[in-house]
Amino acid sequence: MPKSGRSEIGMPENLVRFAGEKARDVDLEKRTVRNTVTTRAIARDGGIVVPDGIITRFFEENPVVKIRHGMAWEESRPLVAGRALELIPTVDGLDAVTQFADNELGREWGYMYGLNEEGETYMRAFSFGWRSLRTEWWNRDRAMAFLGEMYDAEVDGYWFDRYDEVWAVLKSEMHEYSVCEVGADRNALKRLWQERGNRVARDVLTGAELEESRKELAAMRAGQEFMESRIDRLERLAGAGRDLAAEGCGADAAEVAGELRGLLEEIRGADTRPARTK
């Protein structure tokens, strides 16, 4: 029986959405690309932002397109990639026409999103940031009725097989949307940096490597803590076993010895090396 996911499914403040394999409606002269800001599909975070309920007028007063929601790898560089010229409601969500800034940073980011003579797309993801104003929790039937043909039994069904509901933001205030490197083609970015000197490509690659290193170190630390806790337990058991044996409590000492053997086997069989990330 699926359980409620309210205590486990965190409600994020931004969602990443992907455009197609190729950039859409590219205008090199105007430095514009049409992109998907958000859709009504169930996100990987386990919820839905209802497009019809998005209030956009505050964003439209200052339609800045940020970089990673204002978190750049190099703090000395601007945190803005460009601006939104137009927001376009669609059947499935909300699109935008992004104009990349006519400066070095804007041109480098724009190049990776398809603003180049070759028509190559190195990045396809945009991240939508909002504030929730009205939220509900929907069961499978309610979500299926809303999604219609967009419901994916294999992917979306995961949430209802594990939990009995997903969150749904019925009314929200759009804060911004950002360019981000989620799902970027690293090999292509490496070529872009080496062959054309695109510094953003270099920064994205460096950031990805730093993040992988951070995760690997965290896994190593967790493995080390696991071993240290087991060794402490072994030492305590060994001391207790010696005391019991000295007191002539043979049966109790044998039981402790058995637990010691089991713990040693657990340690010998544990692979505490961190998994390599792809």
Your description of this structure?
- The chain folds into two domains: 14-184, no CATH class; 214-269.
- Helices cover 38% and strands 26% of the residues.
- The chain is built from seven helices and ten strands.
- Helix 5 (186-196) packs across helix 6 and helix 6 (199-246) runs antiparallel to helix 7.
- Residues 272-278 have low confidence and may be disordered.
- Strands 1, 2, 3, 4, 5, 6, 7, 8, 9 and 10 form a ten-stranded mixed sheet that branches.
- By secondary structure, the protein is of the alpha/beta class.
What's this model, at a glance?
This protein is of the alpha/beta class. It contains 7 helices and 10 strands. 38% of the residues lie in helices and 26% in strands.
Mean pLDDT: 78
Topology as a string of helices (H) and strands (E): EEEEEHEEEHEHHEHHH
- SS-based class: alpha/beta
Distance between the termini: 34 Å
The proportion of strand residues reads 25-35%
Largest sheet data? 10 strands, mixed
Key attributes of the depicted protein:
278 residues; alpha/beta; 2 domains; ten-stranded mixed β-sheet; elongated
